[in-house]
Amino acid sequence: MKRGQLETHVLILITLALVAFGLVMVYSATSAPAAISNADPNTYLERQGFYALIGLVLMLVFSRIDYRKLRRLAPLLVLASLTLCAAVLVLGSAVNGARRWISFGPIVFQPSELAKLALAVWAAWFLTRRRPPQSLRELARPFGLLVGLFCVLLLAEPDLGTAIAIVLMLAGMLAVAGTPVRTLLGSGAIVTVLGLAAAWFEPYRRARIFSFLNPWQDSQGTGYQTVQAMIGLGSGGIFGVGLGHGVLKNFYLPEAHTDMIFAVIGEELGLVGSMGLIGAYAAFAYVGLRIALRCRDPFGKTLAAGLVTLVCAQAAVNLAAVLGLAPLTGIPLPFVSYGGSNLVVALASVGILLNIGVDRGAERAAGVPDRGRGDRRPRSAVAGGRRGVARTEREGELRRVAGSCRGAARA
What we know:
- This protein has helices at 5-36, 43-64, 70-91, 111-129, 136-156, 160-177, 181-200, 203-213, 224-236, 261-294, 298-322, 340-358, 360-365, 381-410, and strands at residues 93-95, 98-104, 107-109, 367-369, 378-380.
- The chain is mainly alpha-helical.
- The strands form two sheets. It has a three-stranded antiparallel β-sheet with strand order 1-2-3.
- It starts with a helix and ends with a helix.
């Protein structure tokens, strides 16, 4: 197996397994409530399968296109996503009091998902063009201003979860690029204060924070979703009640197929299934970071680290919220939760990771042109180096023998 193929093959297997598992769990979480309501039990499965197909096609396309071409598109991607995030506030469809989606016929798209990928590409391009920010002042312009503008638009939707995911992703990219820890900690403190302020002045966000501190105090109100998730996780036991046999999804747990699908997994598949899912995300992180470490191109290394952080940070925040370890933020579980835009962008990100993992540019750079060969194919730089070392050793040995002979003749 060639260098880098193991990581890319494992990444493909993990991704396909998570997507297939997500389709199964989306059907399990939605079919029974739909049947009870005399609706089509296959509706959500068909929609998720449609978006999964689009995402897999994009994953294949991005895995074949050289990721270095994205550098030229970085400013355009940021401008397009910024325009769409502003347009959704006016043209978007209001669902549960939020304007996050734009409809194009049967396709419903969430511009904030595109903003994640666009900012990852732009940040990798920016951080490889100049020295990484060393102080808060350097970090503020233009990096902080652009990210702040996106966060303001996202909070206006409102979509605090996506803003948190973007901040975590960019923090990982800054760390890989070489920004000092003290600068990261200082910026993290500022972002935390601003986030708490944004949550405090929004009544429903403030209620979520208080319900996180003690969800049982208002178990029929603001803490209802967290309490029901805990009940589902606890009732699953070691091996769960069986796939499709969960009770909590039947109108007891709000958003069971989206943000809270891990509670359904815990109830139906138990501790074993839950730990298997967490292990899959841990393996995804390990393989993705191996790809980032192997990449010789600074742009590819930073972009790979950002995409891996984006997927795994969303998974960690979602799992922490369902387990009651963090406030509810609305962040979906990547590849598993129902949601077309998130699934498509996540699969496209995996495609870019696969292309970085192959690293054809580094393989071409590892060969040196051999003008003595008639076919003009490159000669391996490592092999050439070994032959050069052997030739030097033979020449040194001949010089020593000749010197000994001259000494003997003089004697």
